[in-house]
Amino acid sequence: MNVNRKTIFRLKQRLHETDTVSGRPRSGRPRCTTQRQDRDLVRNHMNNRLLSASASSRQTSGRNNERIKTNTVRRRLSTSGLRARRPYIGPILTQRHRHQRSLWAQEHGEWDRIQWRSVVFSVESRFCTDHADGRVRVWRISGERYQAHCVREHDRWGGAYLMMWGAISYNDRIGPVFFHNRREINAQTYVHDVLQAHVVPYTAMHRNLVFQLDNARAHTARYTQQFLEQSDVQVLPWPTLSPYLNPIEHLWDYLQRRLDCQDHRSQNPDDLEHSLLWHWNAIPRHFLQTLVCCTGSPRGGGAHKLLAGACLDL
């Protein structure tokens, strides 16, 4: 049994004397809640997962009609296997949204890697000259939290910024297109600067491609939809309020980390555009292939996580 010999001897002696191996009653403070109250606490938190431990402590009286402590509630819940975690923040979905998610997941759930390789993933992203990266750590001693050499100054609003559009396929990247103001991206600008200049020529050279775009206003505008139909661009349908797990999001994170590793931080939008363009052209092809291949892999990110998220709030 891989235990000490004396332990077995004591248990055997206790069984001979008391007909049980349970510990003897010891002096000490008795439990402030009964077993029934413990079951009630667990049941209440199972029925209402957002119920706080402090609220339960105010609603529960102990053996002497005294309010139990919040830590007592946490210990009772922890004993039953419940742990306090941050909740998943999901969108407000109507029955129509849930139905659209379900249909999309059923239609694209059986796609293999070959089919996902024919998809061109695109989206816009916002890059700021001052980025608050949660990966940055500071080595300090206790009590040095607010010391000048331990504080990383950051503009809460991110400073100057620009919008960048880009698209990726299995073997190539398309773009980028830079917008120095979010308001510049309307249907007319999106059609002329993005679709007409980049997407249509690329899809014309590579047949049987499917273009993916989200449900931004510039993408769903009638002017944009009519242009896509007239240009014979096949579009991947995208459900409303879909989980935002486009594989190109990993590429934006890759670019942001490359910017953060620079010795020279961009001071204005022009400098930021130059840096982004340099890093965009330096993206290795195998990285793009990895993103797209993981889209069709059950263990990867991309579409299979998107399919899981499509049914997450059903």
UniProtKB/TrEMBL annotation:
Q: Where is the Transposase Tc1-like domain?
A: 38-108
Q: Which GO terms describe its biological process?
A: DNA integration; DNA transposition
Give the source's domain of life in one word: Eukaryota
Q: Where is the Tc1-like transposase DDE domain?
A: 119-261
The record's listing under Pfam families reads:
DDE_3 (PF13358), HTH_Tnp_Tc3_2 (PF01498)
- InterPro entries according to UniProt: RNaseH_sf, Tc1-like_DDE_dom, Transposase_5, Transposase_Tc1-like
* Example GO molecular function: DNA binding
What name goes with this protein? Answer: Transposable element Tcb1 transposase
Taxonomic placement: Eukaryota, Metazoa, Spiralia, Lophotrochozoa, Mollusca
